[in-house]
Specification:
Blueprint lengths: L2 H8 L11 H4 L16 E9 L9 E2 L4 E7 L1 E6 L5 E4 L3 E4 L6 E6 L6 E9 L7 E2 L2 H6 L11
Antiparallel strand pairs: 1-8, 2-9, 3-6, 3-8, 4-5, 4-7
Length: 150
């Protein structure tokens, strides 16, 4: 955890209350930034559960940043311009939102369910999630990171 954010989790140290259990109850999972949060944005937290091998949501984007935590299983995660990666239970992910395409958020496990929680910020008057049409995917194919072999 960076010194910049340490006080945001636990407040200032010292004194008798510093021995309280709440001081050790919080653990920083991710610290993302810089963020572009649209004025008047709303927020939504959703719980997603994919069956074994489910590929997840088709390529899409969010109008604002999204922050996720994998509760159980493993998520196959891929953002435009970044290599595909697997985020296992206890891991986090985030995406900046806006124009970036989110290619994958499916279950990386063929034999077990995967559950994760995502908090998304949404620009006013925009949907929380927009699917990306095939013609746009084709036009932007050069922006996608190389696919894993095999």
């Amino acid at each position: 955890m960076s010194d910049h954010h340490a006080g945001h989790v636990h407040g200032p140290g010292g004194g008798p209350s510093a021995r309280a259990g709440w001081m050790t109850a919080a653990r920083m999972l991710q610290d993302a930034g810089p963020l572009a949060i649209p004025e008047g944005a709303s927020a939504m937290t959703v719980h997603i559960e994919w069956a074994p091998g489910d590929p997840g949501t088709p390529p899409h984007r969010h109008s604002g940043p999204a922050f996720g935590y994998v509760v159980e299983g493993a998520v196959r995660f891929e953002l435009e311009g970044e290599p595909e990666r697997v985020v296992e239970a206890g891991g986090t992910f985030w995406e900046p939102g806006g124009d970036a395409i989110h290619y994958q958020d499916g279950n990386a496990l063929a034999d077990a369910r995967t559950r994760f929680v995502v908090t998304m910020l949404c620009a006013p008057g925009r949907p929380m999630l927009e699917l990306v049409p095939e013609d746009e995917l084709a036009r932007r194919a050069h922006l996608r990171a190389p696919r894993p072999a095999g």
